[in-house]
Predict the 3D structure of the following.
Amino acid sequence: MVTAEPRSPGDAGSPPGSWRRLLVVSATVVAVYDVVFLALVGEVIPPLLAGAVLTAIGLGLLPRFRRGGVAVLGVTSAVLLVAVMPFVAAHLPHPSSPIDFTHAAIALLGRATAVIAAIAAWREASAASGRRVGTLVVALVAASLVVSGVAMISTVPDRERAGDVVAELTDAAFPASLTVPTGGAIHLDNRDRFRHTYTVAGTPLDVQLPATTAVRFTVDLPPGAYDVICDIPGHESMSGQLIVE
Ligand SMILES: [Cu+2]
């Protein structure tokens, strides 16, 4: 038997519909993971912090001011979805770095879900369609976790070989300067829980450095001094120098 939901905006206290439940769950999961992510990164990223605070305000409003809560959660999710897209989309092709990848997947899936759920809750759409979308989103999140787990397990660190220039990357800082002969190899161990790139500006040398993994690569560049950057959005402070002899 299908029970129709009260349609009056003033019917606070009635059981929440499936779209509102989906809105609450998706907005909460994203906000909590954002806060956990900030703790893991060890820095304050103002838009993520503001998103978590606004989500808490929206959740607080929802029981008494249903439409106000739905609006705050929906608008916050929409603005944050657009704001974080350039930063997190770059991690989606790299599931072997689990923190970056799962944060990106949950941030995008969760916020997109929250926006759709907020619109549907505002319009008081069919509860059955809310449950179907909820099931689909849970399946997609589960699939992304499985993909990341498999990619992480199957990522094997490269072995160091005799003659390699051996270096480490920790706390989002490259070795200040590395010197390598033309045609020589660098064995670079990324000790961070986050992915980086070793990108030599103005050259084709652009090496992916998955989280907590060592990568060995050959430097086929003409002799000279080169600037090194990490090309991940938000990692602009990372820089180093490569000298090829
Ligand atoms: Cu980086």
In short: The chain is about 50% helix and 15% strand. Confidence is low (pLDDT under 50) at residues 1-15. The CA atoms of residues 137 and 143 lie 10 Å apart.
